[in-house]
Amino acid sequence: MGDAGEGLIDQDSRIQERMEELERERAKAQMRDVRDPEAVRMLESLRLARTELERQLATTTHERRKDSIAQAMKELDRRIEETTTKMSA
């Protein structure tokens, strides 16, 4: 199989792993006492945005765009941590 085929298989397995990870996180979130549904929605939105940025980073070749995406991911990580901390308090 050529490089393109292997890349598609790798991408497919990464997507499947991420979907399984999200499913585990959803199940875990549903099990605990949800005090603020808005915070849960915000956290889900932030995680999905981060996943999209990871996809963009993997396909981008322009260095300035990569730097921009990396900065955006750092900001999302900060917001995810902040939201998670608020939810567990």
List keywords for this structure.
mainly alpha, 89 residues, flat, 3 helices
How would you characterize this protein structure?
By secondary structure, the protein is mainly α. It has three helices and no strands. Helix 2 runs antiparallel to helix 3. The protein is flat. The N and C termini lie far apart (51 Å). The model has no long low-confidence stretch (mean pLDDT 84).
- Molecular shape: flat
What is the number of strand segments?
A: 0
Structural class label:
mainly alpha
Give the number of helices. Answer: 3
Q: Helical amount among residues, as a percent range?
A: over 70%
CA-CA gap between termini = 51 Å
What are the secondary-structure elements, in order, as H or E? HHH
Main pleated-sheet profile: none
In round numbers, the mean pLDDT is 84
**What is the CA-based Rg, rounded?**
16 Å
Tell me the β content.
Answer: under 5%
The stretches of 5 or more residues where confidence is low (pLDDT under 50) are: none
